[in-house]
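Q&A FORM
Asked by: J.P.
Topic: structure of Putative cysteine ligase BshC

PROVIDED:
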Amino acid sequence: MEMKITNTHESGSFIHKYLNNNRNALSFFDYDLSSKSQRSRYDELMKMSFQREELVQALTSYNKKYNAYPRTFAQIERLKQKESVVVVGGQQAGLLTGPIYTVNKILSILIEARNLEESLSSPVIPIFWIAGEDHDIDEVNHTFFTDGKETKKIKITERNDLKQPVSERIIDQEEAKKLVKDAFQFLPETEHTACLYKKLLEDIEQGNTYSEWCAKLLSRLFADTGLVLMDAADPQIRQIEQPYFQEMIRKNDPIRASFLEQAREMKAADFGEPITIDQQNAHLFFHEEKQRFLLERLEDGNYQEKEGSRKWSEDEMLEAVTTGKLALSNNVVTRPLMQDLLLPVHTFIAGPGELKYWGTLKQVFHSFDRCMPLVKPRYHITYLSRRSEKTIRRYQLDTKKITFEGTQQKREQIINDGKAVDDVKVFKKAKKRLAKFEDKLEEGISPLGKGALLLHDQFRLKMKEQLKVYEKEISHFVESTQRIHLQRLLCLEVEVRPNGNWQERHLNIFPFLNLYGEDLVKNTFNEMLDHRKLLETGHHLYLTM
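REPLIED BY: S.T.
REPLY: Here is the structure written out as tokens.
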């Protein structure tokens, strides 16, 4: 495995400004990414108390379900130490773990935890937060595979009108088996195919929700790295969170006001509206009959179901939550706050979009008399096959440029350079001559009247259409002479910029596991560990296998 390290953040973007200590961007956060901020955040956490014993019990129970390795349980035990802190990041429970950025985020969490532990000389636990309470099934029920030549969408058909959390939505076993079979028939068979396929079928036989299957896969991929998994919808975690939900009910007005003020400031600073501004949004969901519904806070202080008829006074809501009659969950605004109340979060690992929406939350944290944790952008990772690396060298391509633009420009250049005849120029000249000929012809027949001119117009249209077909066929003929070159470049694009997207945002990790084995992720982690002194926050790593 060879690693090339670069920076792919576009100049002028929010993340670029943030990483380059732009004063306006940093003003939306409590801490920058300096070593001084690292120590300040740690000192702040040491003054706080957390339900550490209860957390250890909940996390131990949860990770046991997924056959975690001893190193994971050793990490969980370290949470009992008052001087320990965590590095955390989260993602939805995507099908077969979803896009590769889920894996990349976890790798970023693990590397940051190692670095921070060295820097602080204190225990730092890496935790991945699975957003099991999310209910938007259309975001998690599909993923994309590649066979190296094209991509294929892999999807489980689901009812999207149900607002059922993915931690409760059971995957249909027959659908899942068919999906895995279709997916692996699409992939080239390698020495790893049978083993991967067998394990996935065994998973399906056990029965899974989306969250459970995702957790099983992540536990395998990151075996023996010390990663701690956590599902926000886990009943034991929900029990620990109960007093914090009560506080969010009581302090809902300050939460809403703080978010609105900060979000408007961000918009005024030309950083956009990463989270929709809605004055009545209470930023909490309630759960009923295996579905969840958004709550609104009314001017009279009562709560109501958004676009629904149910209402509660604040006291009624508090009583329902306290007695367990009503279960709540967080939205994008209150989830980071809940994370901070629940865990001693030193650093949050964010994707580019998350970094921006966290910029709207500083005052929300302040409404609970606490500061935001450090927010560090994750690493970007792109896997390159030997074939792709060879293509890049053969045509002297810039990997970063391919990531952003694909290979179309190079393909057009190859087509143009390889032409014995400039067919575009030839047809442009022919069109001008034909137009002159048609004009003269029209002039000659005009004395015959409107009927003749109508026939002439029809002739002109047919000639134009036939010439267009002829031009297209000649173009295809020219391209066919360059087919080998074009095929190489298209295969490279399918791998690096599939369907116009970055690899990590579109493709699933399994096509790469199929090529390089289930140890690929752990090997990537070890490679990053070996080079971590060279890695900087938000770097883009290109890994040639």
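FOLLOW-UP: The longest strand covers residues 281-288.
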